[in-house]
Structures are given as structure tokens and as C-alpha cells.
Batch of 2 targets.
Target 1
Amino acid sequence: MFENRYRLRPAPPFRVPVGGGVLIVVVDSATPAVTAALASVDDTGVELLAASVTVDARAHGELLAPAVTSVLAKGGATPKDLDAVVAGLGPGPFTGLRVGLVTAAALADSLNIPAYGVCSLDALGWAAGPGRVLVATDARRKEIYWAVYEDGVRLTDPAVGKPADVLLSYGAGPLSAGADPRPEPHAARLLDGTRAAVGDGAHRYADILGLPVLDEPRYPPAAGFAALAADRVRDRMPTEPLTPLYLRRPDAVLPGERKPALR
Amino acid sequence: MTDQPTARDEPLVLGIETSCDETGIGIVRGHTLLADAIASSVDEHARFGGVVPEVASRAHLEAVVPTMHRALADAGVALSDVDAIAVTAGPGLAGALLVGVAAAKGYALAAEKPIYGVNHLAAHVAVDTLEHGALPEPAIALLVSGGHSSLLLVEDLARKVTPLGSTIDDAAGEAFDKVARLLGLPFPGGPPIDRAARAGDPSAIPFPRGLSAARDLAAHRYDFSFSGLKTAVARWVEARERAGEPVPVENVAASFQEAVCDVLTAKAVDACRAHGVGTLVIGGGVAANSRIRTLAEERCAKHGITVRVPRPKLCTDNGAMVAALGSHLVAAGVTPSKLDLPADSAMPLTTVNV
Ligand SMILES: [Zn+2]
């Protein structure tokens, strides 16, 4: 079901697709991987024409725009050939995440084409394969961004928390909203069926999570974003606000009482 | 703004500014201001008593596209018309800068335009060209705001800017904010202190002039210090409160403001005279203060120095200043930046563009 959704063509450069296919650019900077890709979307599926992935948590701002230029060049396309922009909405460390979103917003605005957002965890969940998996990316501060997927479909809202608390939080997801308010049975139900964990956060905290960790994908794959936005691209849906999934409030402290200068 | 004819052969440049809490996008042609669109997150910071970097960054992300639309509409141009996009690459808040830099790159690459990553402080100098035309060189620039207090020698605005001195502790604008808080006045502190000071006596309280004594001048001739002044105001106010006496807000504000403006203008005039420079440009949010303008004009007139202060809206952070510097760089034939240009929160003053 998952394997045949996209095909990576072996050798660039290519002609811009004809016959109904439209060109999209994908950007995601929600994890240490700075990802840009050029893909073609047609009625039969999504074709990845060129992708650039560089893992460097400190250089999103430097790397992303040149990566976009490079995938366009590899795919033999110019910015004007683009029909839509697809962006990873996070969750992810704020500063890096914003680079991708503002880049996507500027591209779409400048070219007057729609922008579509995809939860970055969903791209990992999409690629993780069948069955129930826990997707986890690194949230720094010894925490993870996570969600649970079944056959690529998300079962819980994206969340942030300590790896050890994920098990407890399972009960708080949509599954607990039903008849039985007790979290434990649902946590057990979810965990029972979870075959593996996937993503950078799963690798970092494998010992705490206690689930088998898949080697790949470690970061949200470009093909996942393209596939998950494909219907909206095909239907030419209206542009979406690219609202980041921050999941945390800004660190800001209200000033206390005035400190006396004397004493 | 002087009414210069808009020559079609002058560069049409769009500037993006996000180094602090203002999302500014300005458009200029040559020295002519066409648009100066601003979205500010200042209200979101007010209750914290200062700019919260993450709050500012979030606001920039939301404001960039709408501000761009306003700027283009105000100028009556399309993005495809512009000759270059300039963006503040530093100094400033790292996360905030990055939003503007990434946005500029996105627009530049999509519209296939050259990009200039520029220095925020040089842009504060360049904005004066929108008001008074080409800047005579060399000039001395006094830049004072909540984030910076610097004296610069500008020999060539496109290529040679030399820092002479800067604050060794608080920025002047920061001192305004802190004293305003002490007096129960709102944030940002500049405008309410300026207003209160008008009804006060600037010589009522002899607050200290930082780094102005002979022994300090040897090592810090062009440097500033406002931390001691801020503490002196706090001590004075608290002594009054302890004695159960009312605090004369107007006199405190006027005397504090006088101490700040006295030091800033004295050192700026000294720098002009020492370097044989006949032009002083004042920029940054504190340049909007009414007293600094008057005092600078008084003191410069005595020495035949011309003072150039742009109107208040151009003194505070905005995109027009970035566009003005970009326009100057394009006209001077400076090579554009590469698309991998970094945002540099600590960009040195000597760097005009990256
Ligand atoms: Zn400034």
C-alpha cells in the first residue's frame, strides 16, 4: 500500500511533466533534516523528481533556499513552473520550523500559487508502513514530539512530552474520548498493537520507549509530504494558512515586583 | 520627504526588516520612499516589560506576507518590478532575523531577484537619504535605540563604516524603558518620558553622566554607559518613597532625559570635531526623542556641523531603511549576497552587507 505510492526516478534532468501532471515544491525544516523536493502530481500518483536532504540542526536558514534552487535545477524547472507549495507544519524546534514555513509562504505568495500544510509527523507516519507505530521526533529539552499512527493514519493529536510520559499520554488521545474514560485500558490497547517506533526521537529514546525502532525513515521524507498533499493539489484546493504546530508556549516571564536598588 | 522626481533609472528596491519586534517592509526608488509598511508586536511585549524574542519571532512569521501585500499596494508596484530585495541580516534577535532572512530568500528566489543581506545599523544611517537626499561623506552617525547605542564614522556608506564607540552596558532605549517602569509609565518608555519631561525641570536633579569624567574619557572617549544612570534614578526615587514624599515624575523624567541626551550629543559633537566631519546623522528609536534633536542642533550649530535627523517614523525600525541601504548598494555597484547568506545576530558594525 505504501511502497507503490511514489517512485523515485533514477537520473535527472527531466522535462517538466506533461499530460496533466502538476509540479510542486516540498519544504520541511521541522527536524534537523533540511528538506526540499520537487515532485510531480498526476491522477495516478506522486513522482519525486529531485530531493535535497541535509541534516544540520543549526543551519536551516542557510541551507533551505539553496536546496530549493537546487531541486528546481535538477528537475529542469524554474520557479514559474510550480503549481503549489507543500510545507511541513511541524511540530519542531521553533526557529528551524519557521524557516521552512516562511520560505514556503514567500514562495507561494511570490508565485501566486497555493500553499498546503502537512503535519511533519504525518510524513513519517505515512512512510512507516502498515500497522500501528509510534512516531517521535526530537523536541530538545529531553522531550519528543510524537503521535500514534495506524496504517499511516494518525490516531492521536501531535503532542510534546517526556519519552517516559508517552505511555501515560496515550490514554488522553481520541481513543479515550469514547465510552470508557479510564486511560489505562486505552493505553494498553494502543500499546498492545504498536509494533514499532520510528523517527529521530525514537532513536534517541529507544531505551525509554521500549519499542523496536525502525532504522528508516529517521526524518520526515519529502515523498510523504507530497503524497499527503496530493489530493489537495489535484483538486486545486484554496491556499491554506501555514500555521506552525508549536505545541509549546513561548518562554516568557512576567516581571515581578520592582527590585529595590538600595539595600 | 523631499519631493524628488522618481527617475525610472534609479533602482527600485524592496527592504525587509525583522531584527526586533517590528515587521517592516519598505519600497524605495533611489532616494524616494514609495512604501513603508509595518506590523508591530510591541503590544504583545508590553506586559513583559521588554521584547520577548520568541513572541517577536512568532509575530514576524504571521506578519510577513500581509505586510508584503500592503507595501506592494502602497507603492503601486509588483514584486516582478523590483530590481533587488534587501533584508536585515544582523545584528538583532537571532530567531527574529531568521524569519526575515528566510522570507527574503523565498521571495528573491521565486521572483528571481538579487538579494542583499545588510547591516541593521548601516540601514539606520541610510534611511536619512529618503528624507535629506544623498549623505555627505564622511559623516558621523549616532544610532540610539532600545537595542543599540553607537557612534560610527561613515566614510563610504556602501563599503567603509567604522565603529568609534558604543554602550558598554545598557542601550539608551533600554534605560528609557527601565526608568519608565520605575516611574509607573508604560512600555516602551521613550515616548511617555519625553511627554512627562516637557512639564519638568531638566536641571532639577543632577543625575550622573556616564563615562564623561576625564579619567573615563581616556579609555572610553566615544563609549556610553547608562547602567549607572538607571541605578541613580532608582535610588533617588526610592529614597523619596522611603521618606514618604511624592515622586516628582516630570522632574525625574526631564532630568534623566537630559542626562542621556547630554552625553549622547556631547560625544557625537566631539567625534565630528575630532574627525573633521561636518555632518551628524542621528537614527534609531531614541532619535525620535524631542530633546535629543534640539540639543544636537544647538550644540552642532556652534561648531558648523549639520545635523540630519529623519522624521520619527523613519527613526524607529522599519523596512524603508533596509530598502534605502539596498538602493544605495545597488547604485554603488556592490555585489549581491548569495542565497546561503546567514542571519548573524552579532554582525559586526564594519560589515555593511554580507
Ligand atoms: Zn534599530
Note: The first strand of chain A starts at residue 6 and ends at 8.
Target 2
Amino acid sequence: MARQGSGLLTIAHKEFLDHVRSRKFLLILGIFLVIAVVGIISGVADYNKSLSVYNQHMSAASASPAPDTMGDKPSILSVFSSVSTYLVFLGAILGIAMGFDLVTKEKESKSLKILLSHPVYRDEVINGKALGSIAALAFALAIVFVLCLAALLVCGIIPGSGELSLIGVFAIVSFLFIFSYFAIALFMSTVSEESGSALIYTLIIFIALSSLLPMLANDTVMETLTGSPPEFPRELVDRMETQGNTTKSVSISFDTSGNDPAWQEYSSKLNAYWEKRQALTDTISLFSPTMNYQKISSSVTNTESGNVLISGTGSGTGIVASSSFAKAGFQSVNVPDIIAGSLVNILALLIFPILFFGLSYLRFMRLDVR
Amino acid sequence: MIELEHLTKEYGGVPAVRDLTLRIGPGEIFGLLGPNGAGKSTTILMLIGLIEPTSGRCLVEGIDVSRDPKGVKQRIGYMPEDVGFYGTLSAEENLTYFGRLYRMEPAPLRNRIGDLLALTGLAGVTKPVGGYSKGMRQRLGLAKALLNDPPLVILDEPTANLDPKGVADYREIVAGVASEGKTVIVSSHILGEVSRICTTLGILSAGTLVASGTWEELGKRVRNGTSGPVTISLETRDPLPGLDHPAITGVEYRNDRRGATVTASEDIRDSLYEYLSGCGVRIREISCRERSLEEVFLSYYQGGD
């Protein structure tokens, strides 16, 4: 905007310097860097293990005339999965620490009145504060990711261009996640008179979004909301018994290739049930930046969990029904596919900072500065 | 030229300032006087564009504050009562930040800051403002108000935390600013302070402007007896008879009745002299005690209520 400019940039510049010089920022950044390095080192160790297992499979496969399933080559991105685990907690804390006193500090020190008596519009003040803080956040994350990349290189792992792109996506998503909690803290700072109150309100929201909401998505609550899964058809059980198999057996010999009507009905019911449950879980997840971030980072680092799979093998000898499983390793999924797969979560993660920053903006524009 | 036209501000239907109309000319040191809660700070906040008036308008050099708050703020230097700075920055860093908000060029800004810190006695103080005393903050506030060399300087309770030396410096600085043709508005509830430096004043009470003008104009109103009762001291050689006069509102006799303190709605010394002489009472002294400035302005406040 033409009328902004100098005032906005002056305020943003000061905010940026205030952040990067503040002890709390430096302290959290220091912890961040330490856990990033530790996370990378442990991630590299896991990666190397997976790689050696993969290489063994490769050797066995090349020796065998009819190769069995070999699995996928582990991805360098899996190294970042432990970093994302730490980021979920510390990133939120960093965002909250940077935002909770951004406006209340000015109110408490009485500097807000003197600041607004200068030739600046109020939107320049709030936008400048946000811009300076975003720059400081980006600066902190950039340091963390550069250090992570450096650690990878030191360990002899050189990411390719596709993997570098995914690391970039992971960095952007991590930034959005931290910015979400920053925006919530900023909003609380504009509505509260004291920094202490703003911090407490923000922490309550943080706990609600990162702990209470995921609790709503657990198995017990889900079963209460969606009911129990459909029971295994009696007809199939009877058939198993008459064939002399016990119910303890995992080897079932009936046709799961699509010709048995009882199995087909059960299969479609179970699919519908799990799809309904998954849809509910996904919907709940959208309201939590933490859950959104976990889902996206799982996709990016390829350590998804919480999925449900039901399948029958073509030979009709197996069934897998599970409420949760985890798979490690890298499938050759490209960046657009991963972004498309997590698009809803990415959009939800974008909405949080936009919504709360918008609310902060509106509140600040109407702030009483008597 | 500052013009306030029918300025009214209400908070939740309760008026803080009512229909305030005022003109302040260039070069004036205008004192905005009133007790706590009279509406002084609200008036100032409307004048600098920090709060919107419920009705009426403020003009600074012909610019409507509501229409161009940024343009007005560029022409104003403001020091609030509870002056606040960034505690982690030094005085110079604080002023540099504010100077940038005024879009001042770096070199002139540096020079200006050096001059102002010397003027306010803060030159060479490098510690962060968080470690300043209230008086030092007030000095820095004065420097901040003068930073952009504005044609209008507004000071809200400027001497509240200053020591005697600081007050003397402040008076000298304000007089110097006014001598350059700039307008200074000083808001205070301390009459003595306003009376020392202000050339004109307005008295606010309960959000209403109850009096305004030069000291001479207000003094004339007092002398004309339009501003309340007078106190007459009587001392005689003979016992006083009962005093009766339509203007008398109260009499306190001494135990030996050779003296009394008379309060009256006007100066009735001549009538008392004639009456007592007629009664054969020898008069040693009859005097009318001039009311202090505080008493005079207290009567304005009470009138405003």
C-alpha cells in the first residue's frame, strides 16, 4: 500500500531486532538448534539402518530368480520425522513466546500511546509488528533447516532435488504451524490488558488444540460417535469351523477375491464404517494446527499413522484389518502428489494464522488507548 | 492555530467532554486546567487523533484531525502524562526509532537527538530507558515531544515527576519553544505550575469549559466579584455590635468581641466602616483578604460541577 511503507517497515525492523535480541527468543532458538541436531543424528541412524535392510533385500532379490516384495528405498525425508516430533511442541512454544506480549507489552510500558501519537496508521503498527515477528520466525526456522541440511551433509547424506523440494515443503509447513500459534498468541495479546493473562489464555487454547482435540479422535470416542465396527459374518465363521479351522487360526480359506457374496457384503460394510470414522477424525483434525501439522509432516516424511487398511490378497488367503499401523520407508511420491494429498490440512493450517491475525487486526484497530 | 469546535466525547453514554469550543493562537502557552477527571486528557487525545470525538471537530493549522490524523500527528509533539518508552533501548535508540516514524533523515535526526538530549540533561546517559527514574523519563518525554520540531507541542502533566531543577529546566525549554512562535498546550491540575508559564488558560470541570482567557481577563472577573465570596478581617478597640448586612454570609467573633472574620458575597468594607463608626466603635484594622489562586479556581471547578 502506498500510504504505508516507511512506518510499516520501521516498525517491522524494530520488532525483528527486538525479537532476535531478546533472551527468550535466543533461548528457545538455542534449544531448537540442539534438538534439531539431536533429531537429525537419531534420524540419520534410523535411516542408515533402513538403508542397510533395503540393501540386503536388494542383494537377496538380485540372487533370486523370482523376486519377492522388496519394499521401497528409505527416504532421506524420514530423517526429519524426529525433528517434526520436537517441532510440534517447541515450535508452538516459540510461536506463543513471540506473540503473547507483542501488544500487551506496549500497553504495560505505556509506549503504545506514544507510538500511536506518531504519524503512523494503526494498521501499520499491527502489520509492522506481525511482519517483524514473521521475519524473526522465518529467520529462526531458516537457521534450523540450514543446520539440519549441514548435519545431513556431514553425515554423508546428499539429498536430491526432489528431496530438497520436500524439505522445503516441510520447512514451509513448519513455519505455518509456528505462525498459527503466534497468531493465536497475538490475538490474545490484543484482547488482554496484561501479558500474564494473554499467556494463560494462549496456553489454554494451545492445550485444547494440541491435547484435548486429539483426544476426541481416539478409538473410544470414535466408537462412541460412530458405533462399533460391523461384526464378522456368522456364515463365514461357520464355514471356517466346518472346514476344521479354529477361530484362532489366521489362515482362512474362503474366497476373498470378490466372488463370495457374504464376504463382499462384510467387506463393503467395514469399508464404509472405517471411511466414516476416518472422515470424522479428519474433520476433527482440521481444527487443530498440531494435528494438521502432524498429518502433513507424516506425509512429507512418509511415516503416516492412524490409517486403516482392509485388503484381501488375490489368492484369497489373507485379511488385514487394523485401526492403526505405521510404515517406514519412502515411496517414490513426488512433491505435487504429497501437496495434493495434504491440501486440506495445508489449507486448514493456513486458515488459522489468517483467522487469528484478522481478529487481532480488527481488535487492534478498535483498541481504546486512553 | 488550534480550534476545537463543539467537541463532545461520550463513553458508554457518559459525557467525558461536553460541547467544548476553544481557539488557541500561535505562540501561546495555553494551560488546560482542571481537577482529575475533568476531561483534560480526553480533550488532548481527541486533539492528537488517538480517540474519535462523539461530535464536533478539532482543527490543527486548518487540518481536521478526524480527516487527516497522520497529517496532524506530523505537526504535533506530544508527551503523555504516563510517558512510556521501550525499556530495553537507550534514550538515543528510542528517539531514533520515533524520528524514523517522523521520516526524518538520518543525519539531521542524529544532530537533533544530540541537541535535545543535551537540552534535557540526558546527554551521555547510555543505559537502557528501563533503568531510568520517573524524572529522567519525563525529561526524555520532553525531548521526544520536541523531536520533530513541531509547531504544536502538547504536554500532559509535564512536571508531575520532575525535581526542582527539572522543573526549572522545563520552564526554560517551554518558554524557548513559545518564543519561536510555536504553540504549547500544557495540561495540568497543578495551578501553581500553569500560572508560572502559561499565557492563557482554559478551565475544565466535569467535561465542561467553565472559563477561558488570559490571566488578566480571568483576574478581572475575580475582581468584579463574579467569582464568589470575600473574607473581611475586622479588629477594633471596642466590642463589636451585631453585624447585619444583606451581603454578609457568615461572621465569626473573637471571644472578647474586639475582632471578627466576616464572609460576604462582595467587598462591603465601606459599609462596615460607616456602620461601626456610627455605632462609636473605634476601628484598628479592616482588611479584605485576597483569595488565593487555588481558592479562585476551586470556585470555578465547583461552579462547573
Note: Residues 6-214+288-365 of chain A form one domain.
